[in-house]
Amino acid sequence: MQHPSPAGHVPLRFAAPSMSVSLDRIADFLGTVPLFRELERTSLRSFADITREHKYGKGTVIVSEGDPGDALYVVRTGEVKVVLVAEDGREVILGVLGVGDHFGELSLIDGRPRSAHVIATATSSLLVLRRADFRRQVEQQPQVGWALLMELSRRLRQADGTIGSLVLLDVPGRVARVLLEHATPGAPATLVKPMTHQVMAQMIGASRETVSRAMSEFQDKGWLTVARRQVTIVDRVALEARARPAI
Amino acid sequence: MQHPSPAGHVPLRFAAPSMSVSLDRIADFLGTVPLFRELERTSLRSFADITREHKYGKGTVIVSEGDPGDALYVVRTGEVKVVLVAEDGREVILGVLGVGDHFGELSLIDGRPRSAHVIATATSSLLVLRRADFRRQVEQQPQVGWALLMELSRRLRQADGTIGSLVLLDVPGRVARVLLEHATPGAPATLVKPMTHQVMAQMIGASRETVSRAMSEFQDKGWLTVARRQVTIVDRVALEARARPAI
DNA sequence: GAGACGATGTGACAACAGTCACGGCGAACG
DNA sequence: CGTTCGCCGTGACTGTTGTCACATCGTCTC
After folding, report:
1. Alpha-carbon distance A9 to B208, whole Å?
2. Is the pLDDT of residue A182 over 60?
3. Please, what is the angle between helix A41-49 and helix A16-31, to 10°?
4. On chain A, which terminus has fewer CB atoms closer than 10 Å, C or N?
5. In B66-189, which ranges are E strands?
């Protein structure tokens, strides 16, 4: 695939001396990514060695559904969304990925075309690992294969949960569910990373208006408070009950 | 986990001579399963060696959501369904597994509880591989790890597709989609694996009645014919168009 | 072959949720 | 400091779809 409309696409170049410095910094970063966490320093450096860094401006399409794909991407800075896009423009958000998250494994594993679009929601810097390089490394570092299995398992559980909620829950129930999913596990007052109603709506297959009404309802019931786009969960138990089928 | 209500649960026992015969037959069977297809004869036998065979009567719950899980199951004969069950009894069918399919990998990989119920839809015989045994074998046969990645990739793509269809398509669109997904492009005509409307409804999150109406509509339009529960797709192109968002 | 049971067609009705429309509010930016 | 733009709240209306109810039909068993 050619990167479509690569606004802000800036392949980095380093002179020999700064190169090794950069390698170290990239290896440091990879060490914080779950996929590579088990690796020794030297292995981290070999992975760092096969990365290329690309920058993408907000709104840039990084991969498109249907494209042949042969690279794995790791978010180093910024944020991207994984979306299905209908011909009439409607979007379903399958995931929002932040620093340390990665995407593109599926095409890398099975060689089939990209299954979704990935679009930068903020100016982002991504590490790109091409299939041949990555596979060669993984063959020498089987821990990474295992970490991949763990990650795919996590996503599959999440996807199945989403399917269940789409079928079994009404919109307020699904809103409760995303809120809980994005809540920090803190004790009495739990915070949620800010999200616009529009984004929530696209994550749960609902309209912005209905999400808005559900959020108002939850505030009226005293289940949560909102101050400057920042949601605080007051009554976690009530929300959990609302997010369970069979109202 | 203890197998819940193991009606028809009959662990097989063999005397020493017939044992090796059985091992060979099981190894033969495993060789037809994609997960183990790449393996040599001797490796197949080592996997066969760590299996136990269990039988389950129709309707038996094989694993329950929430149970701790430490085994992988391969369907040797029969059929099982993977379902989410709401407290009010409604069911979402995540998948129907036949001979050669397997389930239970997720708990085996990440050690977390079962994410869904698995229920026998026909009298079934399953090969059970326990986590410790399986992991030990996989460490010596990395091809199996790769095959697992392929399988999880396939399921993740399918799950994402299902999420997209739940959000973007109306019920007739989703009906068209399952039909196409279960169609085998035979020479004279494309046949669809027989399914009751009730099952289709639970697969796509709709009511039986609405599925019934959609099927009638498709027959009226001449897109398919039904004879004795056997669906034949006449106009595949029309169905594909109907299964695309943005009518 | 007669009953029983499950699967299927179809009509009527209610309701959840999408769509459209518009006003208000707050943040960002010139 | 005012304008602009994106985000949010809410009312009114519409429609797809679930629910209930019942008739029909095929298949299986006895």
Report:
1. 51
2. yes
3. 120
4. C
5. 71-77, 80-85, 91-97, 102-103, 117-120, 124-130, 183-185
Q: Which residues of chain A does B168 touch, with a Cβ-Cβ cutoff of 8 Å?
A: 84, 86, 90, 92
Across the range B195-207, mean pLDDT stands at 96
Query: Mean pLDDT throughout A28-39?
Result: 94
The neighbouring-strand residues paired with B119 are B61, B81
The owner of tokens 């026998």 is B120
Distance CA A98, CA A72 (A): 15
The average pLDDT across A83-110 equals 94
Contacts for A79 with CB less than 8 Å, ≥ 6 apart: A96, A97, A98, A99, A120, A121, A122, A124
Interface of B with A (CB under 8 A): 84, 86-88, 90, 92, 94, 105-106, 109-110, 112, 115-116, 139, 142, 145-146, 148-150, 152-157, 159-164, 166-168, 205, 244-246
Of the partner residues B92, B153, B161, the one whose CB lies closest to the CB of residue A152: B153
Give the CA-to-C1' distance from B4 to D7 in angstroms.
Answer: 51
Q: Which of A165, A174, A182 is nearest to A232 (CA)?
A: A182
**Whole-prediction pTM:** 0.89
Put simply, the answer to whether B153 touches A110 (Cβ < 8 Å) is yes
**pLDDT (tens digit per residue) in B69-127:** 899 999 999 999 999 999 888 999 999 999 999 999 999 999 999 999 999 999 999 99
Cα(A132)–Cα(B60) distance, integer angstroms: 46
Q: How far is B54 from chain A (nearest CA, A)?
A: 25
Using CB atoms, which residue from A92, A105, A139 is nearest to B163?
Answer: A92
Cross-strand pairs, A23: none
Contact across the interface for B142 and A146, Cβ inside 8 Å: no
Report the residue from A149, A163, A246 with minimal CB separation from B166: A163
Q: Is the pLDDT of residue A9 over 60?
A: no
Average pLDDT, chain B: 88
Overall average pLDDT of the B146-166 stretch? 96
Count CA within 13 A, CB hemisphere, residue A123.
Answer: 5
